[in-house]
Amino acid sequence: MNKKPERYNPGEKAPNSGIYRQYGPRGGRTAETAVSVRGRQLPPTDGPGRTWGLDEESGK
């Protein structure tokens, strides 16, 4: 069973340091990324309903 990845809203504190990928309102990945440090606020997104998720592919 696949675990659903955690999503975070703009302005929330990043739970971990790393590269975060922006996801669209329906959960699709976008090309937008941001580097965030644990405990710092995540940046604004490009539109309403978008969220951030830790980019698990960046560690490969």
Please outline the helices and strands.
Elements: E1 18-23, E2 29-36, E3 51-54
Antiparallel strand pairs: 1-2, 1-3
Defining traits:
60 residues; globular; mainly beta; single chain; three-stranded antiparallel beta sheet
Write structural notes for this entry.
The chain is mostly beta strands. Strand 1 and strand 2 (29-36) form a beta hairpin. It contains no helices and 3 strands. It has a 3-stranded antiparallel sheet, with no helix packed on it. The mean pLDDT is 91. The protein has one domain.
Briefly, what is this?
The chain has 60 residues and is mostly beta strands. The chain is globular, with a radius of gyration of 11 Å. The chain contains no helices and three strands.
Report the structural category: mainly beta
Taking the alpha carbons of the first and last residues, their distance comes to: 22 Å
- Give me the strand/helix succession: EEE
Enumerate the spans where pLDDT stays under 50 for 5 or more consecutive residues: none
Roughly how many Å is the radius of gyration?
A: 11 Å
Oligomer: single chain
Physical arrangement of strands within the biggest beta sheet: 2-1-3
By DSSP, the count of extended strands is 3
Helix fraction?
Answer: under 10%
Overall pLDDT metric? 91
Task: Please tally the helical runs, counting DSSP H or I stretches of 4 or more residues.
Answer: 0
Shape by Cα distribution:
globular
Largest sheet data = 3 strands, antiparallel
Number of domains: 1
Strand coverage percent: 25-35%
